[in-house]
């Protein structure tokens, strides 16, 4: 019997199901013990690029509402994400169909932007028209995919797309009303649902072209775990940079973004407790919060011109990288110590670069660091999830 995964709000739920109930799989034992299959690669990549869309469109809409100086660069980041999504289809499906999907996706994005502008301008008619356009383009995109791939579950994909859209609209409506806690809880829901959309498309693609994917499947516990690990780490990167950006702007939603980042930390901590035990989970939590506080110290030093505070923050970030690397490699022997250290250091560099560039008004560089940092953390998730599966194969 083929398994259909449901994407939970928290990675902890995923792990609880895997560890406590041992979800069944028809994949071979060898396949289920690794995250490194062609189908798992596609699942993670697809979930990554669709998930990124959620935060890129949220930022673009917020910037449009505020008519912020970095509006153009936020839109460019959104368009770059669109190209990433389109590249997944190009070469997999007919070129004409891929181009048609991209055109609909671009229109889909534009309808969201039109909605933001209509809210800003208090234009009720254009609000309604934009919402109708969002629904129409969603229907068209699902139809295009179904026509190209009979393995697409059309109704499920449509439901997931619509749920994603609705969360984005609720997130923006809350932002416009100053209800910031709802803003970030809803964009998180949109992000998770977008990952489900991406995973569903990947699953259907692997089923449509079994030879191309060496008859591997997305439907294994290991592939699911890889997706959810990348999802949590990728969101951490985005929220970390958003905290820095909002802090620099003294934005009214800063506290809500910090709360969202804390919830993400709670998810990662719960995962570590589930895998390594409560004591190790507590150690991770202390380490992880330490580097978040280093970012805060760096921001404060930057805004006050306190060079010593900035340097102290960078120095402690260096110590954090060494301590986190030791924590990870001591528990996961398949990790390469040098590569792990470099990956951990690179994450901090992306966050610092994003803030420095943003503060200097180099918005293109800031958004490049945002997108690069997000993609980098998914790569880190790929490596960590494989090391965990190797260390605890019986759990997968």
The arrangement of helices and strands along the chain is: HHHHHHHHHHHHHH
Q: What's the number of domains?
A: 2
Shape: globular
Straight-line distance between termini: 18 Å
- Look at the structure and give the mean pLDDT: 92
The level of helicity is over 70%
Radius of gyration, CA atoms, in whole angstroms? 21 Å
Oligomer: single chain
Largest sheet: none
List how many beta strands DSSP finds.
Answer: 0
Stretches where pLDDT falls below 50 for ≥5 residues? 1-31
Percentage of β-strand residues: under 5%
Helix segment tally: 14
**Structure classification:** mainly alpha
Topology of this structure?
Elements: H1 11-21, H2 29-32, H3 38-66, H4 71-89, H5 95-121, H6 124-148, H7 154-177, H8 180-208, H9 221-249, H10 254-276, H11 278-304, H12 307-331, H13 337-359, H14 363-391
Question: What does this entry show, briefly?
Answer:
The chain has 396 residues and is mostly helical. The protein contains 14 helices and no strands.
Could you characterize the architecture of this molecule?
- The protein folds into two domains: 38-219, no CATH class; 231-395.
- Helices cover 82% and strands 0% of the residues.
- It is built from 14 helices and no strands.
- The protein has helices spanning 11-21, 29-32, 38-66, 71-89, 95-121, 124-148, 154-177, 180-208, 221-249, 254-276, 278-304, 307-331, 337-359, 363-391.
- The chain is globular.
- The chain starts with 10 loop residues before the first helix and ends in a 5-residue tail after the last helix.
- This is Copper amine oxidase.
- Keywords: Signal.
- Residues 1-29 form the signal peptide.
């Amino acid at each position: 019997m083929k398994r259909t995964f449901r994407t939970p709000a928290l990675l902890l739920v995923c792990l609880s199901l895997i560890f406590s109930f041992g979800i069944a799989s028809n994949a071979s034992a060898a396949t289920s013990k690794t995250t490194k299959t062609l189908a798992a690669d596609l699942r993670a990549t697809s979930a990554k690029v669709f998930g990124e869309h959620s935060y890129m469109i949220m930022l673009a809409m917020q910037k449009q509402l505020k008519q912020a100086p970095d509006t153009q660069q936020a839109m460019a980041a959104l368009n770059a994400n669109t190209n990433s999504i389109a590249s997944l289809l190009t070469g997999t499906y007919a070129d004409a169909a891929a181009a048609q999907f991209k055109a609909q996706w671009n229109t889909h994005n534009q309808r969201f932007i039109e909605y933001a502008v209509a809210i800003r301008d208090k234009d009720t008619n254009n609000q309604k028209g934009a919402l109708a356009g969002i629904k129409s383009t969603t229907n068209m995109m699902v139809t295009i995919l179904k026509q190209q791939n009979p393995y697409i579950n059309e109704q499920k994909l449509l439901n997931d797309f619509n749920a994603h859209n609705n969360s984005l609209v609720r997130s923006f409506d809350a932002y416009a009303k100053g209800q910031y806690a709802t803003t970030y809880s809803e964009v998180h829901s949109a992000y998770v649902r977008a990952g489900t959309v991406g995973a569903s498309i990947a699953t259907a693609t692997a089923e449509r072209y079994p030879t191309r994917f060496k008859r591997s499947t997305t439907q294994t516990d290991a592939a699911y775990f890889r997706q959810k690990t990348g999802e949590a780490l990728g969101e951490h990167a985005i929220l970390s940079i958003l905290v820095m950006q909002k802090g620099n702007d003294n934005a009214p939603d800063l506290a809500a973004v910090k709360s969202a980042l804390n919830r993400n930390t709670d998810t990662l901590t719960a995962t570590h407790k589930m895998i390594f035990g409560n004591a190790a989970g507590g150690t991770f939590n202390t380490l992880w919060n330490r580097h978040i506080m280093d970012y805060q110290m760096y921001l404060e030093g930057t805004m006050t011109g306190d060079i010593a505070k900035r340097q102290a923050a960078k120095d402690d970030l260096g110590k954090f990288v060494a301590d986190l690397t030791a924590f990870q490699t001591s528990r996961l022997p398949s990790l390469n110590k040098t590569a792990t250290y470099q990956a951990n250091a690179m994450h901090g560099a992306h966050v610092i670069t994003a803030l420095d560039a943003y503060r200097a008004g180099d918005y293109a560089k800031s958004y490049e660091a945002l997108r690069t940092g997000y993609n980098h953390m998914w790569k880190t998730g790929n490596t960590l999830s494989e090391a965990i599966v190797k260390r605890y194969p019986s759990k997968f």
